Fold:
Amino acid sequence: GENVEQHPSTLSVQEGDSAVIKCTYSDSASNYFPWYKQELGKGPQLIIDIRSNVGEKKDQRIAVTLNKTAKHFSLHITETQPEDSAVYFCAASKKIGDYKLSFGAGTTVTVRA
Amino acid sequence: DAGVIQSPRHEVTEMGQEVTLRCKPISGHDYLFWYRQTMMRGLELLIYFNNNVPIDDSGMPEDRFSAKMPNASFSTLKIQPSEPRDSAVYFCASSFLGGSGANVLTFGAGSRLTVL
Structure:
């Protein structure tokens, strides 16, 4: 099955700085890569996703890049704000025949005011 | 839509007792997933359904765990008998097959289970 590794496990940044989280995956057939944000006491929420036919996607202060050759993808948060403090999970799945997401272990991001 | 609704939000029980967790998926979603989250193992997929039919239960830890989906708007996860190592947050999620064929998951708020 798919194995997703996520780094770092914790990340502390100064407000206004950028945060980068990196994930690698093992199954070259994976072609859907979502990122979830989990705030304290809540379920994970989808914040951005990328399909394998796209190398980069942006949504305001967040962006995701994908390198299918190297089998890694990254989440970039710019101009971090205190409300960005949360646990972030990357995930991977195949498009056809497999609707299971394999999640990374999560990154706890703390934005210092 | 109110999103994925789970109950109870918190459950504290004693070892050996039966626990039933409930989930109402988003209307129109045809996939339903049960995940378990612990510090040690992260998010683990237990079982998922498509159109109320269980598709893959390979993540269910053991026979003490069972899940049902009697109709499109309701699912249960039952643990009988419960053990302290079952203590975790259990999430229900539902999804639809997006335009590109991707699996777009929406999670509920979770049920925090503590087995004493």
Remarks:
- The two ends of chain A are 41 Å apart (CA to CA).
- Chain A has a mean pLDDT of 92.
- The interface with chain B takes residues 32, 34, 36, 41-46, 49, 51, 89, 93, 95-96, 99-101, 103-106 of chain A (CB under 8 Å).
